[in-house]
């Protein structure tokens, strides 16, 4: 009927968390190879992660590093070589050079294009299909109508984020480390990481008149996310009517328990929507979701406007 | 022989760049090239710029480096075919779907991969070569060794900005949609209304350079520090001989939104420097004073521009 997926960075989080609401798990943090025991950069941990997910009857997708420099290609190649020996249900790429590496290795597993793959049109999706891409994550700037247009005109699976922070920008180095006391002594990637990203970091900017911040962004070190949480819980019926089927909850950077709470709400809401039930009272679900979102909720760009606005159902 | 690629944000700037010896000038059609409308050109002006370039022995590239909306894809291609007929010898593009379409419709044109594609490694270069591109713009964080490594991996032409920077900060453009998350405005009549919304990445207006603004940053509950999200790039010079030896075929000067007088002086300066390198110079230290003066002007103009953009951002409702 539909697929609901989320992301988990490493084995510890996978074992300790409750991801039972999800049909599929994207394994790994594509933004930071230094993230502790990150599936995306630890070939030796792939098999254990894959087995854990498959044992629960879920699909396992492996995320590959999004912005490899020339020095990263060798280890990324090692991760790919290991992954191709394992029955992953798909590999996710963000970088077109990495996509080419998969083709060079005659990858037969389905390939998903990740959020930093810059997918804006159906014609681009058609080019990527020639390289083995079967699913695309359209750039978050696209409206729902544009997302549907791509799905229909490129005959490709489209991943539709329904909840969580929106990835806005990525970097090859760690912003937290660069601006910390530790960063003054070491450089990102040289082994001196003190994992300060385990604490929430925020970027804030006030209005020119000195009043408190009206712009807020969350920073996970190598990736900046929206301050607000994208929330589409009120729009399940619309998503179902549009023929969209693959939904995603962004979990990277959130506290333990976030994916479980959000997943339960969306599993219920989407199941009802796809069964054609009348829209329920969303107030309790919205209260819970708002309680998990420090800076509030938004609808992203789905309804054509600045990403941090919340439009709501009406 | 390496080429000097210069900006033409207006017809006046196009003429100045050609007069000062640019090998190629680049122009952006209204709504299709990631710049405010003041730095883009009408189709009539582009035709005139192409004629002026041709008469002056230069070429003209058209920047179509926004990401099309699915609805707008055909319009991109139609415009490109028309520009080619009007004398454009190539295009600067970002989207690989558009790249394929242009290669099919205009087989002999020169396709540059825009910085918006976010190339980060030599495998990317090989991908874009496969996709039909002739030239890629290299990240301005790369050094000579990395340029040589991509030269060995692909026969694609190599272009660099005339910038140097340090390996820190957010990646821009191509991997950033911060601006439109925070602020967004609709089309102005002068830009030609189109049936989609979005950021400068898509041709809508405009990137407010929020990364250049002052932000407070810190862990929750801790005292924040005031920072910008990216460090400014500096005009480069000392790297020129090494880059030419490593196989860079095209040097790109940014600045369609800068004053014409500044672009005129910069084209003249880099024309002289590149000619010296081609003639065998390996040390350009004698230009240090002039470079320092140009860098100062560049930074002052940039500060003014960021202030203007942030004022505009404040005026629009989220």
Structural features, described:
Chain B: Keywords: Hydrolase, Protease. Chain B: This is Putative protease. Chain A contains ten helices and twelve strands. Chain A has 314 residues and is of the alpha/beta class. Chain A has one domain (3-164, 230-298): Alpha-Beta Barrel (TIM Barrel), CATH 3.20.20. In chain A, strands 1-2-3-4-5-6-7-11 form an eight-stranded parallel β-barrel, surrounded by five helices. In chain A, α5 crosses α6 (144-154) and α9 packs antiparallel against α10. Chain A is globular. The model of chain A has no long low-confidence stretch (mean pLDDT 93). By secondary structure, chain B is an alpha/beta fold. Chain B has a single domain (3-168, 233-293), classed as TIM Barrel. Helices cover 39% and strands 14% of the residues of chain B. Chain B is built from ten helices and twelve strands. Chain B has helices at 11-19, 43-55, 73-85, 96-105, 122-130, 144-153, 178-182, 240-246, 260-278, 288-315, and strands at residues 3-7, 24-27, 59-64, 90-93, 110-113, 135-137, 157-161, 163-164, 215-219, 225-227, 234-235, 250-252. In chain B, the strands form three sheets. In chain B, strands 1-2-3-4-5-6-7-12 form an eight-stranded parallel beta barrel, surrounded by six helices. Chain B is globular. The interface between A and B is large, with 68 and 69 residues. β8 of chain A pairs antiparallel with β9 of chain B, so a sheet runs across the interface.
């Amino acid at each position: 009927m539909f697929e609901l997926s989320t992301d988990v960075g490493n084995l510890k989080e996978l074992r300790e968390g409750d991801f039972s609401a999800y049909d599929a798990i994207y394994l790994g943090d594509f933004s930071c190879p230094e993230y502790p025991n990150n599936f995306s950069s630890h070939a030796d941990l792939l098999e254990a992660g894959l087995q854990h997910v498959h044992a629960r009857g879920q699909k396992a997708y492996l995320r590959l590093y999004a912005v490899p420099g020339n020095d990263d290609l060798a280890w990324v190649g090692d991760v790919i070589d290991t992954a191709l020996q394992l029955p992953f249900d798909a590999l996710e790429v963000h970088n077109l050079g990495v996509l080419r590496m998969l083709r060079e290795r005659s990858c037969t597993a389905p390939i998903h294009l990740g959020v930093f793959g810059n997918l804006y049109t159906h014609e681009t999706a058609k080019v990527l299909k020639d390289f083995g891409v079967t699913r695309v994550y359209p750039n978050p700037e696209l409206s729902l109508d544009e997302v549907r247009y791509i799905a229909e005109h490129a005959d490709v699976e489209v991943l539709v984020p329904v909840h969580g922070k929106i990835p806005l920008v990525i970097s090859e180095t760690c912003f937290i480390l660069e601006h910390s006391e530790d960063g003054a002594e070491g450089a990102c990637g040289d082994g001196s990481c003190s994992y300060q990203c385990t604490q929430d970091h925020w970027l804030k900017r006030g209005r020119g008149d000195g009043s408190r911040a009206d712009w807020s962004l969350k920073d996970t070190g190598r990736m900046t996310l929206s301050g607000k949480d994208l929330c589409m819980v009120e729009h399940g019926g619309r998503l179902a009517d549009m023929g969209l089927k693959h939904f995603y909850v962004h979990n990277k950077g959130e506290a333990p328990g976030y994916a479980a709470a959000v997943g339960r709400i969306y599993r219920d809401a989407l199941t009802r929507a796809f069964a054609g039930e009348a829209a329920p009272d969303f107030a309790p679900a919205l209260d819970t979701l708002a309680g998990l979102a420090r800076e509030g909720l938004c609808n992203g760009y789905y309804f054509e406007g600045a990403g941090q606005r919340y439009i709501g159902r009406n | 022989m390496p080429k000097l690629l210069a900006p033409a944000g207006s017809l006046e700037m196009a003429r100045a760049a050609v007069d000062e010896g640019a090998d190629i000038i680049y122009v952006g059609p209204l709504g299709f090239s990631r710049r405010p409308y003041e730095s883009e050109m009408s189709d009539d002006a582009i035709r005139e710029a192409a004629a002026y370039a041709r008469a002056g022995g230069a070429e003209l590239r058209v920047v179509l480096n926004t990401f099309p909306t699915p609805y707008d894809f055909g319009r991109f291609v139609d415009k490109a075919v028309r520009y080619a007929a009007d004398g454009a010898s190539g295009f600067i593009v970002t989207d690989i779907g558009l790249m394929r379409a242009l290669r099919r419709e205009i087989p002999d044109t020169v396709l540059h991969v825009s910085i918006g594609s976010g190339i980060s490694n030599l495998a990317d270069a090989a991908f874009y070569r496969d996709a039909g591109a002739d030239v890629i713009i290299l990240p301005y964080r790369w050094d000579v060794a990395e340029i040589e490594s991509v030269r060995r991996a692909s026969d694609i032409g190599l272009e660099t900005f005339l910038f140097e920077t340090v390996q820190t900060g957010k990646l821009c453009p191509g991997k950033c949609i911060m601006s439109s998350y925070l602020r967004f405005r609709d089309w102005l009549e002068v830009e030609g209304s189109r049936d989609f919304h979005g950021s400068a990445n898509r041709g809508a207006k405009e990137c407010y350079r929020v990364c250049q603004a002052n932000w407070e940053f810190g862990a929750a509950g801790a005292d924040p520090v005031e920072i910008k999200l990216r460090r400014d790039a500096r005009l480069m010079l000392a790297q020129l001989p090494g880059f030419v030896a490593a196989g860079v075929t095209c040097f790109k000067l940014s600045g369609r939104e800068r004053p014409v007088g500044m672009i005129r002086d910069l084209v003249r300066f880099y024309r002289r420097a590149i000619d010296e390198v081609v003639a065998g110079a390996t040390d350009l230290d004698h230009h240090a004073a002039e470079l320092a003066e140009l860098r100062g002007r560049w930074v002052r103009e940039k500060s003014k521009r960021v202030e203007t953009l942030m004022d505009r951002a404040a005026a629009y409702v989220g």
